Structure formats: C-alpha cells, structure tokens
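Lecture notes, unit on binding sites. The following record was shown on slide 14. It pairs a sequence with phenylalanine.
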Amino acid sequence: MSDRFKEIAEEIKVFKASNADELEQFRLKFISRKNVIGELFTQMKDVPNEEKKVFGQSVNELKNLAQEKFQSLIDSLSSGGTDSEDYPDLTLPPTEEDFGSIHPLTATRQRFIQIFERIGFNVSSGPEIEDDWHNFTALNFPENHPAREMQDTFFIEKDPDIALRTHTSSVQIRVMENEKPPIRTLSPGRVFRNEAISARAHCVFHQMEGLYIDKNVSFADLKQTLYHFVKEMFTKDTQIRFRPSYFPFTEPSAEIDISCQICHGDGCNICKYTGWVEIGGSGMVDPNVLENCGIDPNEYSGFAFGMGIERITMLRYGIKDLRLFTENDVRFLKQFNSL
Ligand code: PHE
C-alpha cells in the first residue's frame, strides 16, 4: 500500500500546469470530491484496526500535499507562469458580449401587433401555399378577371389551383369561414409576387392584413382605426389621407397615404416631391366576400386593410433600399434593438 502512497505523492510533486485546462485536470484528479485520494479514504474500512491510524495519517498527508501543490500552481499561473494568457484574470471587468438584435421587420411586426392588440385585435395565420379559392375566388376575383393579373402570381408546378399566396387577404377568408362575428384580427405573413427585385420591390415580402367584422361597422370606423394606428406607429403629427381605389374584395376601396416621414412635406425623392407616401390599401368588405364565407351581409359589415411591413419599416427608420432587409449585413441589422 505504501507504494501506492509514494506513487501518488510523486505524481503530485512533478505535476506541471502551464494553462487553465491543465490546472483543472489537477483539480479533478486530486482535489475534487471524487478523486484518487478520496478513494483511499473509502478503502479505510478494509484496513486492519491496528494499521488504521498510520493509514489515515498518510492519506491526510497526501491530501495536504495536493492542496499545497494546487495553491502553488494557481499562484504561479496568475503571476505570469509559463502560459498566463490562457488563465483568465478574474479581477478584470467582463468583456462585452455581442448579442443578436431584433430584425427591423420583426420590430415593426411586433409594434403593429402591440398597437392593435390594445384595441381588441387578435393574430391569425394561414398557409403560404394557397388554393385559388382563398387567394382569389372567395375574395371576389371573378375568373379570368384582369384583377388577377395585378398580382403577378407564382403558381406551384402546372396546377393553376395552387399558388404562393399573393397577399394575406387569404387569411381573412380562412378566419371568416371558421369564426362567427364579431371578428377583429390581424394577419401578418410572407407573400410572394413575380416582381423584379429593386430598391423598392421584392418578389418575397411581408404584409399585415387587418379585418374587423361586426354589426354596423362603417367607413368612419375604418378611418378612425387607421388614424389611431399611424399616430401610434409614427408620430402624433402624422397626417393620413384616403384616395379612392379599387380592390375586388372591398367596396368602397381606398388607398392609404401618410405624410412623408422623411421630408415632412417639404418634398424628397421618397415621396416623389408630393409630401405623401402610400402605405397600403383598405376598404369595406364586399358583401359578396361575406356571403362566400357564410356571413350574412344584411346583418354584418366590416372593413379590411393591408399594408407592406417592409414599406412601413422603411418609413419608420428612413431605410432607402429594401434589399438590405435580406442581405444579413450585421452592421445594418445591429442598429435596431427596440420595438
Ligand atoms: N390585399 C391587398 C393587396 O395586397 C391590400 C388590401 C387588403 C386592400 C385589404 C384592401 C383591403 O394589395
């Protein structure tokens, strides 16, 4: 047995630690709770009684030897031992970690939802691969109607019935088919259109659709809701105007413009020197759409609106090229940390 003691004592004495990892190896082997010396203690019960005293003393000596050696290894490493750079100086202040940041489109989506949740809207979603019914027909696009061409559709393979959704208005239909009014819902999501990629357009982008169906919902409710929204999303003095427009699924329909957030009306190339920028479309849900979803248009009415999340984000932060959103340049992304 005494050979084993000598062996361990020798191992402790010659041990060299030139970095923190090696120091840790020493600690695990000789200091931590389950270690070679601890093992000797557990063997004590098998030692004959008359030898127990000497055995115990020897184990204690080894234990002290290991403690002393450990301390001296620490001292020599922290006082610039062989490889002090590997051993952290625990007295230094911590270095700053690089955290990821919230993507600006996510920040805008979250802010959108926050504003509308406070006035009773929930969030709904639907599939990105849609059928003709939900993307077009139920939304009152007649077959072969030129309005279908307004939305350069990506079809899946050769089946004209299945396409990548061109707008999140398809989610409107899914909600109305499955829920009874009153309905107040927001549908954020990715949409796809066969458009050339430029600073202002992309073939994949994000929309936020809003839908409100109840008894006696009027155009005044639509206007007031969007007034509230733009003042919350932008600034209190943001102006809004509605321009008559056409969508198959709303009647009457209006395009939504807000006062330019970049030049505040002085004229710049973002607003093409008009002082106004378009942020989306809106209107009163067409009675045909309500009927298509099994809601009685004589009892209920409602409004809907749809906006591009990219467009809103560009105006919020003064971003001039929407390709930046998908290029993953960390220098760009790092600038956005809040809602
Ligand atoms: N779906 C329309 C578009 O993508 C926007 C819209 C939604 C217009 C709801 C009116 C009502 O252009």
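Take-home: The chain has eleven helices and nine strands.
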